[in-house]
Amino acid sequence: MFAANTEEMQPPQHFVRKGEEASPQETEARKATGLFLYEFLQRLNANNDMPVEGAHLIAAPTWEWVQDTDKKNPRYLLPKVDCNLENALEEILKGGHHFDCTQARVFTLLGVTRYLLGNHSSLIVESSFLERKLKEAPPESTSMKTLADFRLYLGFQGYFHEAGAITPETLAVGDVFYVSGHPDYVKRHGPYALLRGIHCVCVGFDKENQPLLMGYDPLFKAKGPQTLKEVRVYLSRAYIGETNTHNDNIIEVAKTVKAQPLQRGTVLSIKMCWHHAHKQA
Fold it and tell me: What's the predicted TM-score (pTM) here?
């Protein structure tokens, strides 16, 4: 669908909104985090592909599929408690796997959480579930069998199913959220079509102060960070299709997609942690 354009695939240059106050420590932390997320997702996109006929194909011995006991939530590929998380993430980043953007979000959340705890833990002052990550893992060799185990041991309460919305005007580096496509996308394209929406993370801002997003999709694989408007245009085109056989009004489709709220992806956004740290400085 896309031809890679190396001129477009440049890392963000701005990491704090123009006009927003931030201490030098906070500014440097946001920059480092934005660049980490950019590079992490760039590798994830470059070395892996979307599911083959709807099937996830991941051969990584330190990961296993788990599901909550009552099976209300989807299965997730999660790291075994007794594994080295850095090595586990490297298994995925090396590539050769097939998965969708929902699973990619799990990898991204694990990666950025580990990064923050290792490099900027002093700023994560409110986020107890981040601080507890790995520290609460039992010392004995135990594999996680349910999502409840995952949340109990690693303190990831709410990482996967957080209700609520987040506004574009408040997005900050590190915010993880879901950009919904057209509400009738599944009805038209079927339950296994991949572009009903995209899980994204804010990695910086452009010259016009617009948030720059990265996610796991051929769009980002070919073009790098995109604005929210560009992602929504992409999702609108995915709904319409290449030939517009339904004679959709493109403007009306775009309006419908734009009207969909951004769905928040974590219990406590990194942005809130930055803000709290700034107030305490």
Answer: 0.83
